[in-house]
Amino acid sequence: MPTKTTSPSQDFIRSIIKEDVRRKKNDGRVHTRFPPEPNGYLHIGHAKSICLNFGLAEEFNGLCNLRFDDTNPTKEEEEFVESIKEDIRWLGFDWGDREYYASDYFDQLYDWAVKLIRDGKAYVDHLSAEQIREYRGTLTRPGKESPYRNRSVEENLDLFERMKNGEFPEGVCVLRAKIDMASPNLNMRDPVMYRIIHATHHRTGDKWCIYPTYDFAHGQSDSIEGITHSICTLEFEDHRPLYDWFIEQLGIHHPQQIEFARLNLSYTVLSKRKLSALVEEGHVRGWDDPRMPTLSGLRRRGYTPEAIRDFCERIGVAKRESLVDISLLEHCLRQDLNIKGPRVMGVLRPLRVVITNYPEGRVEELEALNNPENPAMGTRKVPFSRTLYIEREDFMEDPPKKFYRLAPGREVRLRYAYFIRCVDVVKDQKTGEVTEVHCTYDPETRGGWAPDGRKVRATLHWVSEKHAINAEVRLYEHLFTRPDPGDAEKESLDFRSFLNPASMEVIPSCPVEPSLADARPGGHYQFERLGYFCVDAVDSSPDKLVFNRTVTLRDTWAKIRRRGLE
Ligand code: ATP
Ligand code: MG
User: Which protein residue's CA is at the shortest distance from atom 14 of ligand 1?
Assistant: First the structure.
């Protein structure tokens, strides 16, 4: 079992918080928040942030708020708000009655903007967006002051009020903070605080036609909520001096921002912009496509909240960016499903087997263990009869040396049933393909053991033909062929060109054992020898059973660890 990279008690964020609590900073209070922008579905990267923020609140007897950072009316939708809440609850976290929206603070933010204007620390700028960019300068070249920078307080107050009243079209002017155009930190070069957007907001409707930028809203929203530790990803490190500046100018409660490295996962993209492109351009079947790294996609695929939380704990938090191997996520899932998932038998690509010495019409109910790892899960009956299906790849007419499964003359075990020996094959006259295998069974081997102690080298899964029910099965591979598709752009390549054309295979009709007639949407099973499967909660119906393969049984992470290559 992999050891945890950083145990939660000793990562750098927990050390900071522990020290703050010890020094009675904020009266020893710990109050965090998870601040999604409702412009997409949550993904596994967000899960890392959720587990961290809600986890810290739990550990330090504090609180964690849910706050939607809804400052951009053009990209945000109610659908996203609902999905975000559902996903956080599914992960097992609770924000109580503390569901907030940055838009709840628009009046307060407006008043603070007016205060900064009065104090001579903000001004209305009529430069175009392009000029503002040009005047900003670069890392090596200082910026240039706007000709509108030294407008009088009265003029600024008047113009800002008229911006608010809808007197100007979009893009005519903006409100900027008056800080320092020569600052080595580009974020401090008079950043934009408000822009004109004539759009309807999902909560405030048409009340506003000016909207605060994320930079002007985020830190103050944290402050209003009394957040003590404002935890965010590394790209906001350079914004911290700006957030601190606003808070100091306004003289309000000062949360401490702490940055950590975002999660990057191999064979996956975790940028909402890229994920929404995949959805909108139809590369996947929706935000909850089982190939998506979204929480709704992972859930539909068969991931459990326990597996995702275990994963987030094992990856820990650090200051340095890294690419986490997706096989670690799969490993966490197998650990969880191995205990939970009942074993069943189903056949993906059936080959008919006729047991020629088994009486026609006879049916035996054989006892099978529901989970050998968890005897408390009990047993079930599986019907056995003269005609069965086995997996096509479990038979070879002319087997190579290391193939130990069924072949002419060879004896194998049928799981929980009997030893069978292949005595004949039936072929398609035209293609020469084997269409049926004839076997005899040894009645002495009921249950799968020979009283004379003779051994067989293979145990096959099987389903009785006349008792089988049909299921559609969807098999998945990584969505991308390249371990770091997110980095493609750094090489001027389009991440879409690394989409895996074989990421989904649909097998429309697979025989599965009759106990699955009771399978409920979202139910987890281990199909013997084939992997973990989950009943698709969207496309399954009482007369059509659809399974997603969650993950195969092959644990590449465990193998990597054994080889010491981690
Ligand atoms: P993207 O960059 O994909 O558009 P985002 O960061 O803009 O995502 P938000 O809705 O703003 O998405 O994110 C909410 C919270 O989740 C933020 O605190 C953000 O830092 C955190 N978060 C987003 N992506 C990751 C990730 N890959 N790993 C860890 N935390 C993340
Ligand atoms: Mg963001």
Answer: 36
Give the model's pLDDT for residue 565. 52
Bridge partner residues of 384 (DSSP): 364
What is the residue extent of each domain of the chain?
8-262, 272-342+471-565, 348-460
Does the beta carbon of 263 sit less than 6 angstroms from any atom of ligand 1? yes
Cβ pair 65, 33 in contact under 8 A: yes
Q: If you measure from the C-alpha of residue 46 to the centroid of ligand 1, how many angstroms do you get, rounded to a whole number?
A: 6
Kindly state which CATH superfamily the domain 272-342+471-565 is placed in.
Ribosomal Protein L25; Chain P (2.40.240.10)
Q: Is the CB of 270 under 6 A from ligand 1?
A: yes
Question: Does the domain spanning 348-460 belong to CATH 2.40.240.10?
Answer: yes
Res 298 pLDDT > 80: yes
Ligand 1: which residue has its CA nearest to atom 4? 272
d(C-alpha 283, C-alpha 266), whole Å: 19
Q: Is the CB of 308 under 6 A from ligand 1?
A: no
Q: How far is the CA of 384 from the centre of ligand 2 (A)?
A: 57
CB 234 within 8 A of CB 259: yes
- Tell me, what's the pLDDT at 163? 98
- Average pLDDT in the 13-28 region? 97
Please tell me the distance from the alpha carbon of residue 220 to that of residue 109, in angstroms, as a whole number.
8
Residue 489 pLDDT level (bands cut at 50, 70, 90): confident
Q: Whose CA is nearest to atom 9 of ligand 1?
A: 36
Is the CB of 35 within 6 Å of ligand 1?
A: yes
Which helix (H) or strand (E) segment holds residue 223: the answer is helix 214-224
Q: What's the pLDDT tens digit per position in 131-150?
A: 999 999 999 999 999 999 99
Q: Do 272-342+471-565 and 348-460 share a fold?
A: yes
Q: Is 83 in the pocket of ligand 1 (CB under 6 A)?
A: no
566: pLDDT strictly greater than 60: no
Q: How far is the CA of 192 from the centre of ligand 1 (A)?
A: 22
- The alpha carbon of 69 and the centre of ligand 2 are apart by a number of angstroms equal to 8
Q: How far apart are CA 82 and CA 294, in angstroms?
A: 14
Supply angle C-alpha 438, 444, 446, rounded to 5.
Answer: 80
Q: Which ligand 1 atom is nearest residue 50's CA?
A: 16
Query: How many whole angstroms separate alpha carbon 266 and alpha carbon 368?
Result: 38
The answer regarding whether domain 8-262 maps to CATH 3.40.50.620 reads yes
The three-state (H, E, C) secondary structure of 139-201, written as one string: CCCCCCCCCCCCCCHHHHHHHHHHHHCCCCCCCCCEEEECCCCCCCCHHHCCCEEEEECCCCE
Residue closest via CA to ligand 1's atom 2 equals: 271
432-444 tens-digit pLDDT? 999 999 999 999 9
Query: What pLDDT is stored for residue 266 in this prediction?
Result: 97
By annotation, the residues acting in catalysis are 37, 262, 272
Instruction: From the CA of 272, give the closest atom in ligand 1.
Output: 3
Ligand 2 centroid, distance to 235 Cα (angstroms):
10
Only one residue has tokens 């995949």, namely 278
Residue whose C-alpha is closest to residue 43's, from 312, 277, 266, 294:
294
